[in-house]
Amino acid sequence: MAAAAFLCARAAAPALLPPSRRLHCRLLASRVAAAAALSSSSGEGDGGVEFQGKVGFLGLGIMGAPMASNLIKAGCDVTVWNRTKSKCDPLLSLGAKYEPSPAEVASSCDVTFAMLADPQSAAEVACGADGAAEGLAPGKGYVDVSTVDGATSKLIGERITSTGASFLEAPVSGSKKPAEDGLLIFLTAGDESLYKRVAPLLDVMGKSRFYLGDVGNGAAMKLVVNMVMGSMMVSFSEGLLLSEKVGLDPNTLVEVISQGAISAPMFSLKGPSMVKAAYPTAFPLKHQQKDLRLALALAESVSQSIPTVAAANELYKAAKSLGLADHDFSAVIEALKAKAHSSQQ
Ligand SMILES: NC(=O)C1=CN([C@@H]2O[C@H](COP(=O)(O)OP(=O)(O)OC[C@H]3O[C@@H](n4cnc5c(N)ncnc54)[C@H](OP(=O)(O)O)[C@@H]3O)[C@@H](O)[C@H]2O)C=CC1
Ligand SMILES: O=CCCC(=O)O
């Protein structure tokens, strides 16, 4: 059965909240104006929207740090934890509190977000020793925004709900810059009341949110989006290299693409630095390859053939073996260059 889905753009968010709700997390200044405009029609008298409760954040990498930072800047009471403790320091300077384990964060907060690297780390932080589940209890919520497969998400969800707490999966579309700008797209599934409860927080960190039904649907949507993105990047890389080889200026190709039907922000954003063989990391190549691996398993589970993705995955694997795992995923072009070089010899 197709998942029931609904989308809420940010400006519509305050209308979801009962007028009586008094939440303690003030929205960013830019959002207060939108909230105030809506509050006059929804009956909210104070012109602001607040979240009631303390917010935990586990995992302060490229994505987690700016997301937590936006919550703090919006006035939320945020407690952080990261495996490498030093990454907490910039957040502590902004006013965050620190707890020494995921369990202690979850126990001291009403809602805890997790933004971890992969299925293994997401499961470990949620369900392992001193993991978040050990600090959860009825009335609390756990929101996993990492990109994982549906089976891992379900496993995490079962452990979380066994404590009496609620679980929402909410992977994000959008990279480092949208995370910094509070413009992510949340692909949520799981407990719908938790979804409604954390909506004001999602609206601080993102520009839109989809509720997709049962746990697993958010993970699946995210993997489908990222498998398209990973294949697009490979195709774009092939185009850049071919244009150069036949004597065209690849910068002109980037410009031509930007004006036509296949225009995409990703090409305009990454193209100019790819031409210069520079790959400043926004989305690490190792995570893109992880997502292709998970998308291939998802396709296999329903006997769907995705040969383009399978071919793209091999190139990302080759790029990893060239030592490019921590570079931006656009560095996959280097695997194509290496292939061309070895076939010339
Ligand atoms: N970067 C992007 O553009 C986007 C990424 N994503 C997804 O978001 C997630 C995070 O991505 P991103 O922030 O880029 O990744 P990073 O690699 O920058 O951060 C990964 C985080 O996971 C933590 N971590 C890794 N392994 C463990 C472990 N075994 N135990 C505890 N913590 C661990 C890291 O801790 P430590 O600091 O100690 O290493 C760090 O906090 C991934 O699932 C990714 O696919 C989704 C959308 C966009
Ligand atoms: O998972 C990473 C997604 C990156 C993006 O959407 O730009």
What is this entry, summarized?
It is built from 14 helices and 10 strands.
The parts where pLDDT drops under 50 for at least 5 residues are 1-6, 11-49
End-to-end separation in angstroms reads: 53 Å
Count of strand segments: 10
Helical stretch count? Answer: 14
Multimeric organization? single chain
Q: Could you spell the SSE succession in H and E letters? A: EHEHEHEHEHEHEEHEHEHHHHHH
Shape: elongated
> What proportion of the residues is helical, as a percent range?
40-55%
Pfam family, one: NAD_binding_2
Family: Belongs to the HIBADH-related family. NP60 subfamily.
GO molecular function: glyoxylate reductase (NADPH) activity
Protein name: Glyoxylate/succinic semialdehyde reductase 2, chloroplastic
Explain this structure to me?
The chain has 14 helices and ten strands. The protein has 345 residues and is α/β, with parallel strands linked by helices. Helix 9 packs across helix 12. The longest helix has 29 residues. The protein is elongated. The structure holds NADPH dihydro-nicotinamide-adenine-dinucleotide phosphate and 4-oxobutanoic acid. NADPH dihydro-nicotinamide-adenine-dinucleotide phosphate (NDP) binds next to helix 5. It comes from Urochloa decumbens. InterPro entries: 3-OH-isobutyrate_DH-rel_CS, 6-PGluconate_DH-like_C_sf, 6PGD_dom2, 6PGDH_NADP-bd, HIBADH-like_NADP-bd, HIBADH-related, HIBADH-related_NP60_sf, NAD(P)-bd_dom_sf. One of its GO terms (molecular function) is glyoxylate reductase (NADPH) activity. Pfam families: NAD_binding_11, NAD_binding_2. Keywords: NAD, NADP, Oxidoreductase, Stress response.
